[in-house]
């Protein structure tokens, strides 16, 4: 009879996610993970697979929990569309700027680190970024239909600009750019909405 697990896999996965988020994939060693997760090597492999599999599970957890996936629900609320976009961007910037470690976004960090040479991870991350673009597009199309957005504005092009601005400001946050500069940059980008 197999011994029951002596650790909580969800808690261990959360701890691994934070290590990857802080250090990045390449700089995170197995020893870092084992120490943070407070488990032995055999338990890690039996429960999560190797480092790569653990990282992919941690990325999924980030996207479903504290990452963009949980915050995207702001964009699905009823009411005037443009204030929802501002609320979403304000919440994302507030989250990033309030982090004393300035870790940025695990998705953005991983795109910068791994996407150029890890095509399957890059594809997965591209899908996550596309999810945000699609949510912006849906809301901007609604804004155009309801007269909040000028008729000459292209909702898809604007959605892409907003995603690009979000990714850029996340990099600025991680680089230690002062909060007022980050906020000014996002306000300038948002001014294209009218």
Record keyword descriptors for this entry.
mainly alpha; elongated; 70% helix; Arc Repressor Mutant, subunit A; 194 residues; Tetracycline Repressor, domain 2
Written description of the protein model:
There is one protein chain. Helix 1 packs across helix 2 (30-37), helix 1 packs across helix 4 (51-64) and helix 6 (81-98) runs antiparallel to helix 10. The protein has 2 domains: 9-60, Homeodomain-like (Arc Repressor Mutant, subunit A, Orthogonal Bundle); 66-193, Tetracycline Repressor, domain 2. The protein is mainly alpha-helical. The model has no long low-confidence stretch (mean pLDDT 90). The protein is built from 10 helices and no strands. It is elongated.
Overall structural class, as computed from helix and strand content, comes to: mainly alpha
Output mean pLDDT: 90
Q: What is the helix content?
A: 55-70%
Full CATH superfamily name of the largest domain: Tetracycline Repressor, domain 2
Tell me the count of domains.
2
Count of discrete alpha- or pi-helical segments spanning 4 or more residues: 10
Query: In the CATH classification, which architecture of the largest domain applies?
Result: Orthogonal Bundle
How far from one another are the termini? 66 Å
CATH-defined topology of the largest domain: Tetracycline Repressor, domain 2
- Largest beta-sheet characterization: none
Task: List low-pLDDT spans.
Answer: none
* General form: elongated
CATH class of the largest domain: Mainly Alpha
Number of strands: 0
H and E string: HHHHHHHHHH
- Which percent range describes the beta-strand content? under 5%
